[in-house]
What does this fold into?
Amino acid sequence: MNAFQLAIADGMTITKRNALKIKRAPDLLGGVIILPIVFMLLFAYVFGSMIDLPGLSYREYMIPGIFVQTIVTSAQITGYTLTQDLQKGVFDRFRTLPMSPSAVLTGQTLSDVIMNVTSIVVMALVGLLVGWRIHSTPYEAALGFLLLLFFSYAFSWVTATVALALRTPEVFNNIVTIVSMPLVFLSTAFVDSARLPGPLRPIAEWNPVSAVIQAARELFGNTTPAMPAAGAWPLQHPVAAALLWSVLLLVVFVPLSTRLYKRAVSR
It folds into this structure.
């Protein structure tokens, strides 16, 4: 077995380990799912009645934003688990084993994808109950879900990098919460960018979360020509922009998190 095959095998072993950890601690997955469900019901039945969109149900407009909010929230578990393993000395035990150094981070981020599959399925079922519908072809809908999972994988590397830089669960949770809330709410998740005041509009339009949300809306058929046309390139070409953002996150944060991991286990 060569080094590449060994890295893949070790990564799958760590993925299985982390998946079992989620299975034995269902509160982690429950916390990721419950908050988006609360937001979904809140915006669908409380705020949704006060937001009028031309030619489109607000619930259909909102659900793709909830999907991405779920991804951003669940990615925090990647970082939180890494900080816990750092504090418990799990990485020191891994260092004594004949395993690939990249396996820990690869396995952690892949297990996050498995968790996101579960959470997105639950969100989709709840969305169908509150009135969300897919109006595109099965092929386009499948691409929409795959795009969401690809972005979730890329974003997990971001939280892994932050976790390895901060190294403690409490500090990580505080910092990531402060960053993730504006990342979701200063986007087009719940309101169209045209409704935002001047200084906030370009921030929302160039927010990577907005590109992913708009791409999901187009692929699920949750758009209408009656909506105001977006002025920024990412919202005019959201699928391409979402793919570019995801690739950029991987290019930047995979080597950065790997370097931080090697520094952490060498101490």
